[in-house]
Amino acid sequence: MVVPAGKYLFKGPIHLKSNINLYLSENARLEFSTNRSDYLPNVPYRREGTELYNYSPFIYAYMATNIAITGKGAIDGNAKNSFATWKPNQNKDQLNLRQMGNDGVPVHERVFGNGHFLRPGTILPYGCKNILIDWITIYDAPFWVIHLALSTNVTVRNVVVNSWNPNNDDVDPDGAVNVLIENCTFNCGDNAVAIKAGRDQDGWRIGQPTENVVIRNCTMNSKANGLCIGSEMSAGVRNVFMENCRVGEANSTIYFRANLDRGGVVENIYVRDITVERVNTAVIRFDSNYKGHRGNNFPPIFRNFFIGNVTCQLADHYGIYAVGVEGTPISNVTLKDVTIAKALIPAFTLHIRDFKLLNVKTNGMPVSEVNEYGEQPNTDKKITW
Predict the structure, then answer these.
(1) What is the pLDDT of residues 91-126, one digit of tens each?
(2) CB–CB of 26/15 below 8 Å?
(3) 165, 187, 8: which is closest to 79 by C-alpha?
(4) What is the pLDDT of residue 293?
(5) Measured distance CA(254)–CA(246) in Å, rounded
(6) Which of 109, 31, 24 has its CA nearest to residue 71?
(7) Confidence (pTM)
(8) Alpha carbon distance 371, 121 (integer Å)
(9) Pairing between strand 185-188 and 219-222?
(10) Cα-flanking dihedrals φ and ψ of residue 95, to 5°?
């Protein structure tokens, strides 16, 4: 399907079937309607790791094979003054959906869409196989930008995203297998790449981990993080390789997070050759208890990380932050050839095991050991250039 040069207003979603390439010619621009009723009827959806029926994403495929979105055209979500404004109104629906997942409510009874405030996504191949997204530019997304839910054999290449709205993760491999993300430029309102694998009981029920993900040769500027794994990772994340990426500004460069509701294992993560200008919270951050709410029954497991050849000019707060859970420490982590020119606090760690530092320098001084601390230091003060 070839879209010639020109501007086109779509009063509804595009649903791709198998063996279709949506080709956007250079100077073609797809602009999507801001009318919520245009995205009905509801379709099967997965939102933040929980299944439901919701408004259709703008470009959607369900159980399709051999699909592509290519060409040097653009997709404009027109969301800044429409769907993106829903976030303050979503809390009730968000909590209801999460409770439905925890209670095992049948998916066909989890009906949202009309009368609710769960924003549609931008591009969602759901349960698809053999996917190519290449060269397109995306603006002003309503929610997650490219959401790869329960899909296999995916390439996202040469994509540019300029979208600063709330929850604008740029690429979300979510229960996805065999994913390549390369040569992309991400300027986003949330995480540049956010790897997920289901939320709590709903994630365990489906049981599909995200595995075999390669991220390389990308540029990232983010209101949140460069690479983020979690917090929805209940089915597990493994075998992730990131190299030769540049982070301009972000909250953290590399962030691994879950909580005591989540369960799941994050393991075999390899990162190398990363350059960073400035981060707010931490260059490298592990957090095992991020926004938990139900108790301490299902601690996550973080193990087998190698992070090497990272340089950062400025960390407003922490250089390295790693906080595990008593009895379930963050384990088998190696940081090698990491240089952080300036950081307010070089390192803070708690509940770690086999945490190795090899040629790690912060504020011009070597950091050869990371000791556990009993009390978190005050980081209200920031340092400046």
Answers:
(1) 999 999 999 999 999 999 999 999 999 999 999 999
(2) no
(3) 165
(4) 62
(5) 12
(6) 24
(7) 0.96
(8) 43
(9) parallel
(10) -70, -40
